[in-house]
Amino acid sequence: MYNPVSVFSLMSLPQSSSTGSATLERRIGLRSAVLFNMLEMIGVGPFITLPLVIASAGFRLSVWAWVVGAMIAIADGLVWAELGAAFPRAGGSYAFLREIYGPDRAGNWLSFLYVWQLSFSAPLSIASGCIGLSSFLGMFWPGLDATPIAALPMLHYSNFAAAGACLVMTWLLYRNLKTVQWMAWVMFIGVMISIAGVIVSGFAHASATGGFQIPPMPALPASLAIGGLAQGTLLTTYCYWGYYNITFLGSEVRRPERTIPRAILLSVLLVAVFYVSMDLAVLPSLRDAAAHSAESALVRVRLVAEIAHSAFGTWAGYLMAALIIWTAFASVFSLLLGYSRVPYAAARDGNYFSYLGAVHPKHHIPHRSLVALGLVGAAFCFFTLTQVITMLVVTRILLQFFLQQAGVILLRIQRPELERPFRIPLYPLPPLAAMGGFIFLLMYRPKALGGLAVAGLIAVSGTVIYLIRARRLRQWPFARGSELKTGS
C-alpha cells in the first residue's frame, strides 16, 4: 500500500557523528518523484499569468501558448531525462556540466558558473513565488500595495510581506525531515484543490452567463500574432519550469535509470492538462484581460478570484485567494527544499565555497546553503514580479539550458560508449527543438538587451571569481598537465 508520508523523503541524511561522512540514500520512487516535480511546477505562476497569457496571445492563441510551452518543456525534458539517467547524482545540472565538459577541463569552470548563476536564479524563482503570494494577500489586506516610505515610492508593503514569507519558509525548512515531509504532503493537497477550484469556477461561471463562448477577435497581422504567441509562451514556459527538479535529488532516487525519465515526462503531461483546462475554463470570464494587463498585480489577481466570486458568491472569491496563497507557499517551500542541495553538492565536491557544504549536526540538512538561498531570495522580493521573472528566464536559458542542450549532443559525439539507460527518441531533434524554442522566446521578448545584460554580468562575475579560485587552488586552466590527469 502506498505510504503518503514517504512521498517527500527527499533529503534524508543518515545519522552520523561527522558531517563529512554523511551520505544520501536512494528512497524516492516514481510517484514521489512525480509529485515533487508537480509541487514545484504548480506555484502561483499560472494563477497570475492566466490573464497575461490571454492578453498577450489573444483568446484564440492563448491555449496554444500553453501547448507550445508544454512542447518546449517536453523537448528540453528529454535532455534532462537522458542526462539524469546517465548521471543520477545530487546537484542535477552541476553534475551534468562537469561530466559533459570534463571535471578537469572546462567542466570545472562551467559547473562552478552554473552554481554561481543558481545562487541568483534560484532566489529569483523563490522571490517570484513570494511576490505572487503577497499579491494575493491584497484580497485580505487592501492597503498592501501602499508605499510605506515616502522617499522610496518603488517600495510597497507587499515587498516586505513577500520578504517575510521567504524568511518564514526558510524557518519552516530549518528542522528535521520527518516534519518537512508531513508539511509538504499537506501542501500538495491544497495545490490540487486550488487548481480544481479554478477549473470548476470557470466552467460554472460560463454556464451561468450563457454557456462556453469565446469572444470574437479581429484578425491580426501574422507578425503581431506570432509576437503575441511568443510573449504568451514566455510566460507559460516560466509556469512549466520545475519538471527537472528530481534530477537535483538524483542520488536519492530508486532505479534512477527508469524513475527520472518517467517522472519528468509524466509531470509535464499532467501539468499541461491542468494548465490547458484552466485556460479553457477562464476564457469566457476574462473578457477584459487585455484591458487589465497593464494594471497592478492586485487587479490582475482579482480577475482570477472574481471568477469564483461570480460563480459561487463572495466567500468563494476569498476562499480561492486563500487557496492560491497556499499554492504559492507550497511552491516556494519545494523550491527552497530542492535548490538548497545544489550549492551544498558543489561545496562538498570542492568546486564551490566550502562554507556551504555543512550538514546540520541535529537536523541533518544542508542548513547553510538553505539559509543563504533564503536570505538572497528575501532580498530579491524588493524587485517587481516582471523584473524577477525576466531575469530568471533569461539567465536560466543562457547559462543553464543552452549549455545542457548543446552538451548532450557533444557528449554523444565525444563519448559514444557511455552507458545511457535512457536515450532521447528522435535524437537530435528534441535538443535542437528546445534550443529553437528558447531562441524564439528570446527574440520576441520586449527589452531583450536588459535581460541579456543581467545574464552577462552574472556570467562575467562568476568567471572572474572562478579564475581567482582556480589560480589559488591550481585548477583548470592553471593546473599543470600532471595535475589535470590526477584531477588534483
Summarize the structure in words:
- The chain is an all-alpha fold.
- It has one domain: Amino acid/polyamine transporter I, CATH 1.20.1740.
- The protein has 17 helices and no strands.
- The longest helix has 42 residues, at 45-86.
- The relative contact order is 0.19.
Give a nutshell description of this structure.
By secondary structure, this protein is mainly alpha-helical.
Features:
single chain, 488 residues, mainly alpha, Amino acid/polyamine transporter I, 69% helix, disordered N terminus
Shape: globular
CATH class identity: Mainly Alpha
CATH architecture: Up-down Bundle
| Overall pLDDT score | 80
Low-confidence stretches: 1-21, 293-298
Supply the number of structural domains: 1
Strand content: under 5%
Distance between the termini: 48 Å
Chart the SSEs and their pairings:
Elements: H1 30-41, H2 45-86, H3 93-101, H4 106-137, H5 157-173, H6 177-208, H7 222-240, H8 256-282, H9 289-292, H10 297-312, H11 314-339, H12 341-348, H13 367-380, H14 385-414, H15 429-444, H16 448-473, H17 481-486
